[in-house]
Specification:
This protein is of the alpha/beta class. Helix content is 47%, strand content 15%.
Length: 247
């Protein structure tokens, strides 16, 4: 178990799925959690679960489309815990459709949330981390950002953009002691995948060497490593948690 005692972590999209799993895992390692999401009831449920297990959590209800959301969430971490050590940019949306049918608003919504939102939160967190001369930024990308997927040009572009941003910021923030890495999950069992038909899920499993979908906890375990002191010399990496799908 990695120790994150005395560290404060901000996780976006913390109300469900991968974001919730990461929040719970970081808290189990000792981190104080600032949980950010749009849905207050579900967000409070995440915070209550952390507190019930003996951890500390604060919540910030907001939307990544709000330009001030990142600054507000970082300020909450400073007010609640006196610092910010870990940022996990997890929140994301999909608006799938073939290119010729994709509306401008479908493109803008996905890019604005998945890429611009991550940019704004990272910018806000970097100001604090650079002053501390330490920090961990963990971007949640996707295997789709690495290999593409028909009907997801907007989502793939946003997640590929997150990877490009990760590589650039690793170089930019490294001299100040801040590491920046990305996790690219494959098919993970979440609300997004539960709506797929059994036939399509079977086709997808056939594309995965391990033959099964991953769990949010599989992604959370990698996030805990990247957030820890044991990963102090790991930066600018894209770690694929995909059961070998990209092979």
């Amino acid at each position: 178990m990695f120790s994150l005692k005395g560290k404060a972590a901000l996780v976006t999209g913390a109300s469900r799925g991968i974001g919730k799993a990461i929040s719970l895992a970081l808290a189990s390692c000792g981190a104080q959690i600032v949980a950010f999401a749009r849905t207050e009831d579900a967000l409070q449920a995440t915070a209550d679960e952390i507190r019930s297990a003996g951890g500390e959590a604060a919540v910030v209800v907001g939307d990544l489309s709000d330009p001030a959301a990142g600054d507000r969430a970082v300020q909450m971490s400073i007010e609640a815990f006196g610092r910010l050590d870990i940022l996990v940019n997890n929140a994301g949306v999909t608006r799938d459709g073939l290119l010729i049918r994709m509306k401008d608003e479908d493109w803008d919504s996905v890019i604005g949330t998945n890429l611009t939102g991550a940019f704004r939160f990272t910018r806000a967190a970097a100001r604090t981390m650079m002053k501390q001369r330490s920090g961990r930024v963990i971007q949640i990308s996707s295997v789709v950002g690495v290999k593409g997927n028909a009907g997801q040009a907007n989502y793939a572009a946003s997640k590929a953009g997150v990877i490009g941003m990760t590589l650039s910021l690793a170089k930019e923030l490294g001299p100040r002691g801040v590491t920046v890495n990305a996790i690219a999950p494959g098919f993970i069992t979440t609300d997004m995948t539960s709506g797929l038909s059994e036939d399509y899920q079977s086709q997808l499993r056939n594309m995965i060497p391990l033959g099964v979908f991953g769990s949010p906890e599989d992604v959370a375990a990698v996030a805990c490593f990247l957030a820890s002191d044991e990963a102090r010399y790991v930066t600018g990496q894209v770690i694929q948690v995909d059961g070998g799908m990209r092979l």
